[in-house]
Amino acid sequence: MKSSFTFDELIELLRTFTPRDEIILEEVPAPQKLATHSFAFTADISNGALGEDEAEVASGRFVILHEPGGQDTWEGDFRCVTFMRADVDSDMQEDPLLPEVGWNWLLDSLEATGAQCNAPSGTVTRVSSASFGKLSPRNNDSEIEIRASWSPTITAPTDIFLHVQAWCNLMTEVAGLPPVPEGVASIGAARRRG
């Protein structure tokens, strides 16, 4: 079924998306060889603190691909391709169920926003690093990385917001930020680079 909107119209609308205050979005060059049309941005998520106490707790990348007529494995004309990484505490990192929990966080985030999709796939990776020598005063680091893709059902251009919101919700949840209650608006202005 041919869309009643162009990819450029979808992207112009996507550029108006406003995430919660702790998320900084930046438009970046999109991969050119995966589909005829593509668009990408990155997100950096802070802990919400001000001044010297502010720290990045998660980051990610969101790519929307469009191939008129689709591709065999997509089950649609569009494909969302995402990556996110977030710091986790060592207890969480050692939990043998962390990969399954991470994947369920993604699926639950899509469901919670009402984002309809086909053919979800991805990986969840635990990353743990230890510092030695002159770096030994550093704390050991633990992270979770989620790489995923899915084919969004987009019947109207604004449907893309549901998928981006689900991705942002996933990152803030994994980063341990408290959810923003429904119906509560942020007071601060959204921060955007680029």
Question: How would you sum up this structure, described in words?
Answer:
This protein has one domain. Helix content is 23%, strand content 34%. The protein has a seven-stranded mixed β-sheet with strand order 5-6-4-3-2-1-7, with helices on one face. Helix 3 (98-113) runs antiparallel to helix 4 (159-174). Strand 1 (23-28) and strand 2 form a beta hairpin. With 194 residues, it is α+β, with helices and mostly antiparallel strands. The protein has helices at 7-14, 90-94, 98-113, 159-174, and strands at residues 23-28, 37-46, 56-66, 78-87, 117-129, 141-152, 191-193. The chain is globular, with a radius of gyration of 18 Å. The chain is built from four helices and seven strands.
- Whole-angstrom Rg: 18 Å
Overall average pLDDT: 84
Count the domains: 1
The largest β sheet comes out as: 7 strands, mixed
In percent, how helical is the residue content? 10-25%
